[in-house]
Write a structure and sequence with these properties.
Bound molecules: S-adenosylmethionine
CATH topology of the largest domain: Hnrnp arginine n-methyltransferase1
Oligomer: single chain
Number of domains: 2
Largest sheet: 6 strands, antiparallel
CATH architecture of the largest domain: Distorted Sandwich
Shape: globular
CATH superfamily of the largest domain: Hnrnp arginine n-methyltransferase1
Structural class: alpha/beta
Helix content: 25-40%
Order of helices and strands: HHHEHEHEEHEEHHEEHEEEEEEE
Radius of gyration: 23 Å
CATH class of the largest domain: Mainly Beta
């Protein structure tokens, strides 16, 4: 996990919807929640201007959703969203946070004189009991490529238990996007992998010569391990828009008011993308997401706000984009059409991590068709 990776929201058992797996709470806490208990980690999120501006504007430009209302902040962290909700006029805000960060949130609530409105509750959302139902559920639940961390499960659980009929979700909608990209990163990763294998060959020879044991029976396993690490693990990147070489496609849409856990367990999309660059290398695919604050049909926003993590020069986010590299890259020209099949499932070992299968057929304007691509990736 790189320095940009968010915490691992490991798992309590997620009861809503079919297919949910039973997760050891202790393991989940150790693997996932632990990082959120650190201020440096909350600070990283609080310093993301795109994220902060979107939530701030969504709340303060739609005060009608908050004035005199009850609000639930799922995964309150430092309590920032709960405090803004109170400042926007909420009558009562429940700020639920699983980690000891709740203590810091409590300190901030008092320091900002909001203790009569904001009640901080330490505990897992799935286990907390509120004294009343709420008008608004607000949460920043999005992980890398939207669904990593699987935290939306907890928001769904909260919504089904605690949102009044006609209540509003903040954010209200989410989408996942994918596009073909060019990047020098693939060459670097391939050379890292080759270096690791050369080192292994030297190691097996030395071990045989000096210690009399032949380790080369493990070469295949070592190669698979290194391949997963260098070539099959998706990478965090803040892509420049010029690195996107074809049309982007929406691969998943979520209505936060109605989605079930079943709806988000798997992402499956077949899409076409046209190359828009004259003459370039297809080095892989970039994935990102956006969320919208639109209120609901019966209770719409006065001003809709968008939070996008698309490649951008000035508005990068701590989520960046997830990059799935192709080895080797393929030469493509403007007008070539990529027929892509994308599947993302939760890892069986850790439901907060994802596994991806990506197939791509390239229909080139020239007569020679490159062989179809089928790769497996891990979002760790
Ligand atoms: C991405 S952070 C957002 C923090 C804060 N709301 C903000 O916007 O700055 C998510 C927080 O949710 C907490 N969290 C995740 N799942 C939770 C659950 N099931 N119950 C309570 N807290 C949870 C994490 O510990 C973390 O502090």
């Amino acid at each position: 996990m790189g320095s940009h990776q968010k915490g691992e929201r490991g798992g309590s058992s997620n009861g809503s919807g079919g297919g949910a797996m039973v997760v050891d709470k202790g393991v989940d806490f150790a693997q996932y929640f632990c990082t959120y208990a650190f201020l440096y980690h909350q600070k990283e999120m609080l310093s993301d201007r795109v994220r902060m501006d979107a939530y701030f504007n969504a709340i303060f430009e739609n005060k009608h959703h908050f004035k005199g209302k009850t609000v639930l902040d799922v995964g309150a962290g430092s309590g920032i969203l709960a405090m803004w909700s109170a400042q926007a006029g909420a009558r009562k805000v429940y700020a639920v946070e699983a980690t000891k960060m709740s203590g810091h949130a409590q300190t901030l609530v008092k320091a900002n004189n909001l203790q009569d409105v904001v009640e901080v509750l330490e505990g897992s959302m799935e286990d907390v009991t509120l004294p009343e139902k709420v008008d608004v559920i607000i949460s920043e639940w999005m992980g890398y490529f939207l669904l990593r961390e699987s935290m939306f499960d907890s928001v769904i659980c909260a919504r089904d238990r605690w949102l009044k009929p006609g209540g509003v979700m903040y954010p209200s909608h989410a989408r996942m996007w994918m596009a073909p990209i060019r990047s020098g990163l693939g060459d670097q990763k391939k050379s890292d992998y080759d270096g690791a294998m050369n080192d292994w060959y030297a190691f097996t020879e030395d071990t045989k010569e000096y210690y009399g044991v032949d380790m080369s029976a493990l070469t295949k396993s070592f190669s698979e391990e290194q391949m997963k690490y260098y070539l099959q693990t998706s990478l965090w990147q803040n892509l420049h828009p010029h690195q996107v070489i074809g049309t982007a496609a929406i691969i998943k849409e979520i209505d936060c008011l109605t989605a079930t856990v079943n709806d988000i367990l798997k992402v499956k999309s077949d899409f076409l993308s046209s190359i828009t660059f004259e003459n370039t290398r297809l080095c892989g695919f970039g994935g990102w997401f956006d969320v919208h604050f639109r209120g609901s049909e019966v209770n719409p926003a006065q001003r809709e706000i968008e939070l996008t993590t698309a490649p951008s020069v000035d508005n990068g986010t701590h989520w960046g984009q997830q990059v799935f590299l192709l080895h080797p890259p393929v030469h493509v020209i403007e007008g070539d059409v990529l027929s892509v099949s994308f599947t993302m499932d939760r890892s069986k070992e850790n439901h907060r991590l994802m596994e991806v299968e990506l197939g791509c057929e390239i229909k080139q304007s020239s007569s020679k068709q490159p062989p179809p691509i089928r790769n497996k990736y891990y979002i760790e």
